[in-house]
């Protein structure tokens, strides 16, 4: 009965939204990147670097907001490496993305040791505080969405809508989608394909960095090695399940976040290891069942001279 009460309570809505924030930010970033035709399997590593950058920036400045800005910078910087390798040097984009993930794991381990002199965990920093919106917080039931919530929740919703509006209601967004489907045709009409792709990859990294900061200085107040724990790959699955659409990526992120909320809060008479597998098993099932049915950008992974 307790499980049923939780499933049909408003608390699960709030928990799902909180878990969906980093997934959504990374998934929208992946959507923008892959709509330009660049495959990005380095989302996990970009989130990890962002998580470290958020804690390091907060540690150095004492301000979690400056920590967020630093995480965005770090995510964009590691994404620029992927862009240079993929666009300038035309390396295999899948290999480059996997390399970014491996580099990020090793780099954060070393830097954690250098800065804090510890293995695997940083020192504690100031956590980003929650906020409440006057008047709206007094609305029955729904008022909980506006009371003691992270600013990231509202920023994420704004970013989702802004990314959708940009992609489907602006000339630049139309060009970005054209590049992802027909880069050579786009180039023949004067669109600078390389510039669009560089910007798309870096923006992806910045959003992933922001997602990492949410994990390290909003949900927590420190950095732990490998704390992203596969969320980057779940975000990629959300991007695919969402049809390479920012709104679709958001809705898919909610589904995976709901699975995470169930994993943490349900009490079931089965080994805990099986319950912890739920979000990852759902990711595999979605990719198997839906991955081949959705339409990816036609020129995904294709480079032009």
Provide keyphrases for this structure.
single chain; 305 residues; mainly alpha; ABC transporter involved in vitamin B12 uptake, BtuC; globular
General description of the model:
It is a single chain. This protein has 305 residues and is an all-alpha fold. The protein has a single domain, classed as ABC transporter involved in vitamin B12 uptake, BtuC (Orthogonal Bundle), CATH 1.10.3470. It contains 13 helices and no strands. The chain has helices at residues 2-7, 10-35, 43-61, 64-88, 93-116, 151-169, 171-181, 183-188, 193-217, 231-241, 246-265, 272-276, 278-290. Helix 6 (151-169) crosses helix 7.
Helix content: 55-70%
Assign the CATH topology.
ABC transporter involved in vitamin B12 uptake, BtuC
The number of domains = 1
Individual helix count: 13
Task: Specify the CATH architecture.
Answer: Orthogonal Bundle
Radius of gyration computed on alpha carbons: 19 Å
Kindly name the structural category. mainly alpha
Order of helices and strands: HHHHHHHHHHHHH
Shape, per Cα inertia axes: globular
Q: Please provide the count of β strands.
A: 0
According to CATH, what is the class? Mainly Alpha
Average pLDDT score? 89
Largest sheet, if any? none
Proportion in β-strands = under 5%
Distance between the termini: 62 Å
In terms of per-residue confidence, which ranges show pLDDT below 50 for 5 or more consecutive residues?
Answer: none
């Amino acid at each position: 009965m307790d499980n049923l009460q939780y499933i049909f309570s408003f608390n699960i809505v709030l928990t799902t939204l909180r878990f969906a924030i980093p997934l959504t930010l990374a998934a929208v970033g992946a959507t923008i990147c892959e709509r330009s035709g660049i495959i990005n399997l380095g989302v996990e590593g970009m989130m990890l670097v962002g998580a470290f950058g958020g804690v390091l920036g907060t540690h150095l400045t004492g301000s979690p907001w400056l920590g967020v800005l630093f995480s965005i910078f770090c995510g964009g910087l590691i994404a620029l490496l992927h862009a240079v390798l993929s666009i300038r040097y035309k390396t295999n984009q899948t290999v480059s993305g996997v390399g970014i993930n491996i580099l990020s794991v090793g780099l954060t381990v070393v830097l954690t040791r250098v800065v804090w002199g510890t293995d695997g965990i940083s020192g504690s920093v100031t956590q980003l505080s929650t906020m409440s919106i006057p008047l709206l917080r007094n609305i029955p039931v729904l008022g909980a969405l506006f009371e003691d919530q992270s600013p990231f929740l509202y920023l994420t919703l704004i970013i989702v809508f802004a990314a959708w509006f940009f992609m489907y209601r602006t000339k630049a967004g139309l060009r970005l989608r054209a590049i992802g489907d027909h880069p050579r045709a786009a180039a023949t009409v004067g669109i600078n394909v390389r510039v669009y792709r560089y910007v798309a990859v870096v923006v992806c990294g910045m959003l992933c960095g922001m997602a990492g900061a949410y994990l390290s200085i909003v949900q927590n107040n420190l950095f732990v090695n490998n704390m992203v724990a596969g969320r980057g790959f779940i975000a990629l699955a959300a991007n695919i399940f969402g049809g390479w659409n920012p709104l679709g990526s958001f809705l898919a992120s909610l589904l995976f976040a709901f699975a995470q909320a169930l994993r943490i809060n349900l009490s079931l008479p089965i080994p805990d290891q099986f319950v912890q597998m739920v979000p990852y098993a759902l990711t595999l099932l979605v990719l198997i069942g839906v991955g081949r049915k959705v339409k990816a950008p036609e020129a995904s992974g294709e480079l032009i001279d």
